[in-house]
Write a structure and sequence with these properties.
The complex is a heterodimer of chains A (97) and B (280).
Chain A lengths: L5 H25 L4 H6 L6 H4 L7 H6 L4 H7 L5 H6 L6 H5 L1
Chain B lengths: L8 E5 H4 L7 E5 L2 H9 L5 E7 L5 H8 L7 E5 L2 H4 L15 E6 L4 H10 L4 E4 L5 H16 L7 E2 L1 H8 L7 H4 L7 E4 L5 E2 L16 H11 L10 H4 L13 H22 L10
Parallel strand pairs in B: 1-2, 1-8, 2-3, 3-4, 4-5, 5-6, 6-7
Antiparallel strand pairs in B: 8-9
Helix pairs in contact in B: 2-3, 5-6, 6-11, 7-11
Classes of the chains: A mainly alpha (97), B alpha/beta (280).
């Protein structure tokens, strides 16, 4: 994929995102699983893109680098969930799921 | 960046935390005064506030909802059956502060999980070494987390355990629950480090990074059931602490239920035939 032009990479990402969303909608239509469980499985483009790479900070990772200490601690290896949850838990976060 | 490069988060009583600098720490507050002091004057290294025993103090939450900072708050429910109904008091404050609810696994936990989830708070359920009645509630909480359409926020440790089945590097159960001294070092009021769960003052400071591994190694040497447990790599003896004689049979059933749910979800996903994957 690294050899692809950026426009095609973007297109691939969009397609993956759409497929992930389709799967999420499909599962939701089944009425079997909660949105949180689907997210844990990486359905909906969430966890697969931002899976925590670290062994800690599941909670804090989600909340974003709000203060200096967090950035250094969680920003690289530990903080993939930061982006997933965004700065504020409400609004953007709910809409995302 | 390797794991070793990340500093340990120190979990400190409020009075002790005031001496901290820029290194990451968590201040444990147990009164309205302490809460408001930290919200009014957060030190640079403050990662979040662990709030204990003041959930019922309405005035504290009114003040917190109008504080000048947005420090995240981790609310500890030590007695969920008695405290869960007070969770409504966090609605206003959650507009300004990120709020997590940490629930000690004790009778009544299911009500607390349901209400916290309804309020869209992420949850950390601390299982400890649950007795049969509490374990039954934990299994009900798992079922609620998995299947209730209203659950949108994570309930740990279920959430990360499912993620792990799909290859996410979430670490051991100790880390998921933020009880591994290698990542979270707890201190008592005298500045002595505490071992997780037991509250015992002791050796965590000397080799915090090795505490969990030493614990597991010791269990294996003693012939504990961890030796043949399929979940050993993820659990790493969590449920054998502090009581090494704790029977994990019910816990293994719980782990198996999570694994089965993850597998079933994966199968459901596989059964979804997308238009792009099946062109005509």
């Amino acid at each position: 994929m690294n050899n692809l032009p950026s426009s095609e990479i973007g297109s691939e990402n969009e397609q993956e995102s759409q497929e992930s969303l389709d799967r999420r909608l499909f599962l939701r239509s089944m009425g079997k699983w909660s949105g949180a469980a689907m997210a844990a499985l990486g359905i909906g483009g969430a966890l697969l893109a931002f899976a925590p790479k670290a062994e800690a900070g599941i909670w804090i990772n989600r909340w974003g680098p709000r203060r200096g200490g967090w950035i250094n601690r969680w920003g690289g290896g530990r903080g993939r969930w930061i982006n997933r949850w965004g700065g504020r838990p409400r609004g953007r976060w709910i809409n995302r799921w | 960046m390797s794991e070793e490069n990340y500093p340990v988060v120190r979990m400190l009583p409020s009075a002790l935390a005031k001496t901290q600098g820029d290194e990451p720490f968590v201040a444990i507050v147990r009164s309205r005064e302490e809460l408001c002091q930290w919200l009014g004057n957060p030190l640079p290294g403050l990662s979040w506030l662990q709030v204990e025993g003041i959930l019922g103090d309405s005035d504290a939450w009114i003040e917190a909802a109008h504080s000048g900072s947005d420090i995240p708050l981790d609310l500890i429910l030590a007695d969920p059956s008695a405290e869960f109904s007070e969770l409504y008091k966090l609605v206003d404050v959650s507009a300004l502060h990120d709020v997590r609810v940490t629930i000690q696994a004790r009778p009544g936990l299911l009500k607390a999980v349901k209400l916290a989830a309804a309020l869209r708070f992420p949850i950390r359920l601390l299982p400890g070494q649950p007795k049969a009645d509490v374990l039954a509630e934990i299994k009900q909480a798992l079922d609620f987390y998995l299947h209730d359409p209203a659950v949108e926020a994570p309930v740990e440790f279920f959430h990360s355990w499912i993620a792990r089945t799909r290859g996410a590097e979430v670490g051991s159960l100790w880390m998921i629950l933020e009880e591994d001294p290698a990542g979270y070092l707890q201190y008592d009021i005298d500045g002595q480090t505490k071992l997780p769960l037991s509250g015992a003052v002791g050796s965590a400071e000397s080799l915090p990074a090795e505490f969990v591994e030493n614990h597991l190694k010791s269990l294996l040497e003693q012939g504990a059931e961890c030796a043949t447990c399929p979940w050993q790599q993820s659990c790493r003896g969590y449920f054998k602490w502090p009581d090494r004689a704790y029977s994990c049979q019910g816990i293994k059933d719980l782990f198996a239920a999570i694994q089965a749910a993850a597998d079933e979800m994966a199968r459901d996903v596989a059964s979804c035939v997308l238009p792009s994957a099946n062109p005509t």
